[in-house]
Every structure is written in C-alpha cells, then in structure tokens.
Task: structure prediction
Amino acid sequence: MEGKYNCLIIGAGMAGAVAARRLAEEGGRRVLLLERRGHVGGNAYDCYDETGVLIHRYGPHIFHTNNRRVFDFLSRFTAWNGYQHRVAANVHGVFMPVPFNLTSLELAFPGAEGAALADKLIGTYGAERKVTILELRGSGDPDIRALADYVYEHIFVHYTVKQWGQTPEEIDPATTGRVPVFLSRDDRYFQDVYQGLPLEGYTPLFERMLDHPNITVELHTDAAGRVELEEDGTIRLDGAAFDGPVIYTGAADELFGCRFGRLPYRTLDFQFEHIPRDDFQGYGTVNYTVDQPWTRITEFKHLTGQKLPGHTTVAREFSRAYTGAEGEIPYYAIINEANNELYHRYRQLAERCPNLYLLGRLAEYKYYNMDAIAARALELCDDLLK
Ligand code: UDP
Result:
C-alpha cells in the first residue's frame, strides 16, 4: 500500500520550506516536513518580544538578491518593506560606514590626505569598484598599503578574530570578501536590486509558504528518532522503507552520528536588551571593530520600521566555537581545506542513499545567504520535478 507521505523533508528553514512548497504544489507530492524546533523559519524566525518589538531571535536577517526568480517566488508569500541595510563600525566612538567607502575614508583621513587617497584609489581601481581588504593589502603602492593597513586594523582584524577566532589571513578569503572596500559614496551594505524584510515578518512568510494541503509540518520533532539510514542506502521513516525523495537540511555530520568527528562551526550567543529610548544607535547594525567583546549590536526597529515611541530592543552578538552541546546552534561553517575534506567524507556516506538530497547552509557546509539557499532549493526542485 502506498504510504501517507511520498516526500520527506527535514528542517523547516529556507531550504526545506521552499522545497516543500514546490514539491507539494507543482509535483503533487504529499510532503512530511519534520522540524526539531517549536517553530518554522529556521534562523530567519522572528517574533514579538515582551515589549512588542519584532525581533530576529537568531540574529539579523536582511533579505537581498539579484535573483529575480527567487524574489518572485518569495514574493508570492509576502510583500516587502524595502529596507536597505546600513551598517556603521564604531571606531573609538566614530561611526564609519561599513563596507569601508569614500565617506569612511574622509572620516578616517580628513582633509587633503583623504582626498589624495581617494584619487589614488579611484585612479588605480576605478570609481564605484569594490576591492577586498586582502587585495588592497597586497598592493605595491605604499600609500594604498598604508590605507589598507588602517582599514585592516580598524575594521577587519579585531572583528574577524572575535567572529572566527582567527585572523583574516587564516579564514576563507571569500568571507572578508563579502565586505569589500567600496570606492563609492553608496553607504548601503548591499547593492542588490531587490532588498527588504518581509512586511509582516519572516515567520508569516514561512507560514504562508508552508500553508498547503499537501504539506504536513511536525514541530518539536527530531528526525533522529523517526528516520534511519541503513548501510545499504535504504532510508526508513518510522521503521518502514521510504523511497520518495528525502531532503535533509540539517548538519551532515549529525545524520551519521558524527562518526568521523564533528564538523566545526561557530555558534552565537545573543544578549537582548530593552532600552527606554526611541532610538539607541541610529543604525540597524553597529559593528564593534576595535573594542568590546561583542561583534555587533542590532537594533531591530531600524530593520522592520516598527514605530514604537519610547522604547527599543537591541541584541548584542557574541561568537564562539560550537561544541554540539544541547541547545547550541551551529550558525557558521568554518570553511577551510581540512573541514571541507571532513564534510566530503560525510557527503560520500550520504551518496549511498539514492533518494537523499543534502540542501542548505548546514547540509552543504557552505556560507550561503538566504537568497542563495532559496535558489539552490528551486534548482533541486527543477531536477526533482522533471
Ligand atoms: N568583517 C569584518 N568587519 C566588519 C564586517 C565584516 O571584519 O565590520 C568580516 C568578518 O570576518 C565577517 C565577514 O567580514 O565575518 C563577513 O561579514 P558579514 O557582515 O557578511 O557577516 P554575516 O552578516 O554573515 O555574519
């Protein structure tokens, strides 16, 4: 007899939710979606705190993309608030735009010196260009190198050591490459065509995406207790062989009892604070790039545009090594050669199961933005729907 479900998805974050919707809607699949936490949305989950401020419990999520297909797909389930993210680095009390740009340059080097540096940078790399800090530090020009040293010291090195426990040279260059020096006066964090937060929040977006008669979501459900992977590649759901597609969006090592050792991640601790002021910092996020133990402070009202006179909520972020302890969340894969190799050992085990698909930031051990995960999910569904 045919089972109740013919598609199993583990994890109700961006990867799992996008895949669930398409397979249910276009493929007519009867999807069972298992989620360990008590809510959908993964780390993009948002909720109202006890003072009525809409917060991102797992850190700031700002949607931005150039991918029209992703934007159109998600726009079926939400309108957007048009928020354009702006970040300042707190450099000994001076707020400098990040990515470091021509305005930051003037703040760091007022007057003729800064103007000469701007001319030289634009003459060398071109106006409106983005140049990574590691590239700038490799410049043969002593003036550019001196500027690069300033930016490295005041924007990158301390923040990166707090965030990763390693220096910019020790981590994947693509990571600091996410925030290149920008030879522009555009002080937005992202330049993508589509930017914003879901008008009513991320959680309603996910709830609408998953609201389909062919989708069953089971919250508070650890897949470990329901799903087994056998050595011969058979997958069992509640003891019965399951031959429909199984999309797994959790950490790859956990799928195999971490038998080769844990995949390294960074985890975060968030300290939320209510402040009896209209506005705490004037920016969505302020990065603490020269001092303080936290990496950044996010003030959610700036992101959401919520009007709540007299009070605001902020979150300080602290980064540390993930240990796998109960309740800890793996946020960032630590991408390097050794860790990628370890990941590939798990991936090879997964490949023994012909109907198993690893999808998303955790399962693929990648530093994906939300839009990239959504794009990957859409592509996987294109294949599965063929
Ligand atoms: N970074 C930094 N200083 C900053 C902003 C970013 O050193 O003020 C580096 C740091 O290594 C960080 C990386 O650039 O981890 C990527 O920053 P992004 O803001 O993209 O990180 P996310 O928001 O994904 O945590």
User: Anything to note?
Assistant: Residues 142-164 form the longest helix (23 residues). The longest strand covers residues 265-275. The chain has a mean pLDDT of 98. Residues 89, 98, 155-156, 159-160, 163, 175-176, 178-179, 287, 289 surround uridine-5'-diphosphate (CB under 6 Å).
